[in-house]
């Protein structure tokens, strides 16, 4: 199967389209925020992007796969929620096509502006690969500097679904921290992840707790989606890496929170669920010369 790459623009923002020559599969990633804004399978869009998203190259796009780095949420108040990667202008480093896939590599490194927010040298490489039925997004953070830094990272993926007919299989038994109640983390009792109210849960992967399945299975009208997640830490450009646990955030704003988001139509909460692999419990320290990689594979299946 032949794949192609095309540089273009979307709503005035530079983008790269990856597609199979047949047109059966495609993906589009912006240079702004390195945000993937489309993944289509058989002509069906599998990611959600808000109709009210703001495409001004300043505010992060509401939807697709925003990148959260160097923080998730806003533990460091001097930096915006979810960090600056998702509203920074990335560099297109390389595109590549092979007989079974197409890849685009985007990079971001520290600038005067980022050093004001976060006083560290860093390099991010984001590899987006489209292949048969699958979209792989791999984010690597490097420490090219001479002092340690601590970071978090997360791929804030918006899946296009009808929440009334959607389930995630399965967080059952996984350690769950509920961001709404902010109590102690407890094992999830629900067999299937459903949405019938505001949900903002962080499932924690840690020694002694039930591992979060990889893949997670999202069942939806649009067709099943499998979400694979892995992370590793090592020395830059050296083979040996150690595995890093990957947490998963499960979010839908529901009615009231949706109304509070200016870049989301009031009723759009019905049309997406966020299943977000990331490294968000505590911080990962990268010593000079170390790297941290988070990978997500979305594998779209046909409607059953
Ligand atoms: O991923 C869950 C979350 O942290 C929610 O608490 C909600 O704030 C969501 O991210 C969206 O955040 P944003 O800054 O994109 O509006």
Beta-strand level of the residues, as a percent range? Answer: over 45%
How many distinct beta strands? 22
State the end-to-end CA separation. Answer: 24 Å
Mean pLDDT: 96
Bound molecules: 6-O-phosphono-beta-D-tagatofuranose
Instruction: Indicate the low-confidence ranges by residue numbers.
Output: none
Please give the count of helices: 2
Question: Pairing-aware structural class of the strands and helices?
Answer: mainly beta
Instruction: State the helicity in percent bands.
Output: under 10%
Shape: globular
SSE string, helices as H and strands as E: EEEEEEEEHEEEEEEEEEEEEHEE
Looking at how many chains there are and whether they match, the oligomeric state comes to single chain
Please outline the major beta sheet.
9 strands, antiparallel
Radius of gyration: 18 Å
Give a brief rundown of this model:
With 304 residues, the protein is mainly beta. It has helices at residues 112-117, 254-260; strands at 3-10, 13-20, 25-30, 36-41, 44-45, 67-68, 91-98, 101-109, 123-131, 134-142, 149-155, 158-160, 167-169, 175-178, 186-187, 199-204, 216-219, 225-235, 241-243, 247-252, 272-286, 290-300. The model has no long low-confidence stretch (mean pLDDT 96).
